[in-house]
Amino acid sequence: MTSADVSPPGTAPDASPSPVRGWLAVLAVTLGIFALMTSELLPVGLLTPIGTALDVSEGTAALMVTVPGLVAAVAAPLVTVATARIDRRLVLALLIGMVGAANLASASATSFAVVLLARFLIGISVGGFWSLAGAMALRLVPKHHVARATAVVFGGVETASVLGVPAGTLVGDLSDWRTAFAAVGVLGLISLACMVAVMPKLAPESTMTFADLPRVFRTHLAVRVGIAMTFLVITGHFTAYTFVRPILQDDGVADGMISVLLLVFGIAGICGNFIAGALITKRLRQTVCGISVLLAAAMATLAVADHTTFSAAATLVVWGLGYGAVPVTFQTWILNAAPTATEAASSLYVSMFNLSIALGALVGGLTVDAASTVGVLWIGGVLAILVLPIVGGRPRDMAPRPAPPG
């Protein structure tokens, strides 16, 4: 099962969509969301070379993750409501075009201020695009393909989360960080061209208002739990993972091996995604608890042990398995938690996810500058393990139930 296995009631693809063109549009949206999420997380593996080139500390360079995360958290509901009457194809095209331009601007920037401005624009795109993209897939393909199409779209988030950073780091190591930003910018423009070519006009169907956000939060206990566990896990993960490069360097890992280790992390993350997909149908709560334990264990191991390249790789496999399971598991929890208000619940989830990315990078940056890199591992591990008493030690009716089929 994936996040797409729970389809919002009342949603259906537009009348008689072409299966071939619909799937091409789904793939274009997936490419766009992959480019978006890779853009947001790309600086994680490049903090050291960017900071050196632009003469800022690694803690300050982490603002490249904090700024788009904060902006995306606000943009998710704002863009959804503000564009309620605009053709969704146009909205998505504008947002992905902005990502392409912003990354190309970052690639040619000569000052950190210009990079931060570009990152601000990326935050708007990430928040707006992600909050709309899943619902768009429901209208692009015939009804019996809806679940699979939505899974593919959310797979763009998952793949970017676990492979975007290592791939970008590898490009940066083989060339330089500017080339990595330029490559993602070109990827965004390719996605724009594909969407314009294959996506049909999609008249807006949503009537979501700002009042729906506090209402769904107030009336659904499982939504509140989902938002809380998203905050803890994502903040904890990015408090530590934003600084994984200097952490590994401090452990004595050769600089040229870091991109390889991040690729190991990414491959483990893909495996974690599939493992979680097989578990969450009947064991959603247990999967969330398992994620918490894996993340905390990996961070604690990196904090207390001296590592060779091999042992660091083994620890990153554990970390990758845990984090790779997060998007599909948490998205499924949110969709199950409010099956009659999925757009509002998803907007809250996207906001909290991106806010937590920003807070994690900010807390990690302050910790690295004020204390040491090892401190971010302890903070991240503690936040991750706090999910256990929230999810594992409460009544069973707190967890969401799958929506009935059909």
TrEMBL record:
Q: PANTHER family, alphabetically?
A: CHLORAMPHENICOL EFFLUX PUMP RV0191, PURINE EFFLUX PUMP PBUE
**One Pfam family from the record:** MFS_1
Name this polypeptide is given: Transporter
* GO terms assigned for molecular function: transmembrane transporter activity
Recorded hits in InterPro entries, A to Z, give: MFS, MFS_dom, MFS_Efflux_Transporters, MFS_trans_sf
The record's SUPFAM superfamilies line, in alphabetical order, gives: MFS general substrate transporter
Annotated TM spans:
23-42, 62-83, 90-114, 120-138, 150-171, 177-200, 221-244, 256-280, 287-305, 311-335, 347-368, 374-392
Cellular location(s): Cell membrane
| Domain Major facilitator superfamily (MFS) profile: from-to ranges | 25-399
Protein's UniProt keywords contain Coiled coil? no
Q: Give Gene Ontology CC terms.
A: plasma membrane
Q: Does the keyword field hold Transmembrane?
A: yes
